[in-house]
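Incident log, structure service

09:12 report received: a user says their structure output differs between two submissions of the same chain.
09:20 pulled the input from the user's history:
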Amino acid sequence: MKRLLLKTLVAALAVSAFGLAAAQDIRERSFKFALQNPKGHPLATGAEKFAEIVAARSGGKLKVNVFPGGTLGGDAANVSALQGGTIEIVALNSGILAAQVKDFVVYDFPFMFANAREADAVVDGPFGQKLHAKLQEKGIVGLAYWELGFRQLTNSRRPVTKVEDIAGLKLRVIPSPINLDWVKALGGNPTPLAFPELYAALEQKAVDGQENPVSVIQANKFAEVQKYLTLTNHQYNPQSLIFSKKVWDGLSAAEQKVLQDAAVEAAKFQRQITRDQAGGSLEELRKAGMQVAEFSAAETAKLRERMKPVIEKHGQPVAETVKELQAELDKLRK
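09:34 re-ran on a clean worker, output below:
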C-alpha cells in the first residue's frame, strides 16, 4: 500500500513539475484567426471554442482573436498573409490548398466521400496527416481538419430538379480549376469569386447562383437573394485549420502543444455542431421562403456520370495520391 502511495505521489509531482515547466515556457502572445463565415456559423463558433481552449490551457497567456466574415480578406489573401506571418491562423476549404500543394485537389473531387464518417476517418488518419505535412515546405503548418459539410446548389432563376436545369446558370465557384471544370461539364457558366464578394454579386444578379452547405447558405442570409435550393450533396468540404510556419517556428514546444491539442479538441466540437445544425438550417431556409428540391436517385447518377471526366482530368497529375485515397475508402467500405 505504501509503495502504491509513493508511486502515486511521485507521478503527481512529475506531472506538476512538467506543468510548471510548461507554464514557464509560455509567453504572453496574441494570434489573429481569419475565416470567411460570420459569427454564429459553426466554423466561427468552433474558432471561438478553439480560442477558449487555448486561453484555458495557457493560463490566459495565449490569446486568439477571431476575425469572422472575411473581415481580413478572402481565402487567397489570408493564406498569403499567413505565409508572411501577419495572420497566424486560418480555417479554409482544404481543396483551396491545392494552389500550394497540388495533392489537395482530391478534397474537391465531386462525390468523393459518401458520408461524414468516411471523411472523418480519412482526414484524421494517415492520409490526412500526410497531406497536411506537405504544407510545411510552403510555410504552412496543418493543425487539424474541421468541417464545412456537403455542398448544395442555389439560384435565383428557376427550380433545379434535373441535371439539365443547371445549363446556362452563372454560378459562383471557389476559385480553383476543378470547380470551374465541373460547372462547365454541367453546362453552367462558372464565375470564380472570393467569398466576401458573393452576397453582393447575388444581390446585384452578377451571378445567378452559388453552391455551399446549408449552414453557410443560412448563416450568410443567401435566402434574401436566392429563391431556389437543390439538395445535391455534390461535394464534401473538409476544412484545414492552418498556422503560419514563420510564427510557429518561433514558439516554444509548450506553446505549440497547447495550440495543436486545442485544434484537435475544437475539431470534434466544431464537426458536431455543424452536423447538429444542418437540419435546423434547412428548416430556417424553408421558413425564409426558399423553395427546396432534391435530386432523384436517377438524376444523382446522371450528375455523377457527368463529373467523371473532370475527376479523371484532375486526378491524373496526382495519380498516386488518388490511389492512396481510394485505398483508404475501399478499406472503410469493406
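09:41 both user submissions now match this output. Likely a transient worker issue. Closing.
09:42 reviewer note: Confidence is low (pLDDT under 50) at residues 7-18. The chain has two domains: 2-147+238-278, 152-235+281-333.
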